C-alpha cells in the first residue's frame, strides 16, 4: 500500500529521475535504520556455486550500477545483490531520455549503455561492505573498446573486483553496447572464457580464494546458439549461467506508447523468451553448473516457474519498479510453499 502511493508520485517523473530518487531515499532510510523495517522475509538458506545464500531471491544488476546502494537494497530482504555492470573506465552511457515505462504491459525499455562511474569507484564502495548477503559484481567492456580487445577490459575488471566479490558475472548480452552480443558466438566466447578462467586460476592461487564465475546471456538466442554456449561454458567450468538479459524483440508490447524505442525490453513480456532459454540451458548444461533465472518476474508464481524450469536462484529489477519491496516477500512465500509441497 505504501509503495502504491509512492509509485504514483514516482511515475509522474522521468523514469531515470525516479530511479535516482528512489535509490537516494533507500540510502537515507538505511542510514537512519528505517529500511530494515520494510523486510518481512524469512531465511531460506541454500548452497549454490559453492556459496551459502540466505535465500534464493536477488536483485538484478542495473539497479545499483556503482555499488552506491547495495547495503540499503540488502535491507529489503534480498538474499543476494548483484551490482554493475561496471567497466574499466567511467562512461556516461547513451544520451537521455534512455529509459521508458510501458505500464500497461508492466514493462520497460532501456538503452542506458553501461553508464557507470568506473571500476575503481565501485571497488572503493565495496571495500567498506557491511552487507551480510551474497554480493555479485557484473563486469563489461567500455563502449569504445573494440570487440577484438574486449578480453582486456574483462580481465582488468576481474582483477579489480576479485578480492571483494562473492561471485563475478561476465556480461556479454546487453543489447545497448554495440557488438557486445557478438561475444556470445562460439569462437568469441571460447576466447573470452579461456582468458577469464585462466586469470581466475591465477587470482585464486595468489589470494587463496576461488571466486565463482557466471556468464549472462541474451533471451534472443536460437537453439543452436544455446547449445554452443552450453558447450563452451561447460568446457571452461563456469559456475553459473544467468538467463537472461533484456530482449530486442517487442512481442507483447506492440502498439503501446514507447514500444518502438530502441533498447532492451524487460518486465512481464520478457518472461516467455527468458523461460525458453532457461529451460533449454538446463537441458544442455551439466547439473553442476547452476542457473539463475531472470526476466519477467512480477509475481511470486513467476519466481516459482523459474525454479521449476531448473534455476537455483532468481533475480528481478523491473518487477520492483511496478510492485515495490512486497515482490520480494511474495516471491519468497511462493518459493517456500513450493518447497514444502
Please tell me about this protein's structure.
It contains 11 helices and 13 strands. The chain has a single domain (2-340), classed as Alpha-Beta Barrel (TIM Barrel), CATH 3.20.20.70. It is of the alpha/beta class. Strand 9 (213-217), helix 7 and strand 10 form a beta-alpha-beta unit. The protein is 39% helix and 17% strand. Helix 9 (300-308) crosses helix 11 (326-340). The radius of gyration is 18 Å and the shape is globular. The protein has an 8-stranded parallel barrel with strand order 3-4-7-8-9-10-12-13, surrounded by 4 helices. Strands 5-6-11 form a 3-stranded antiparallel β-sheet, with no helix packed on it.
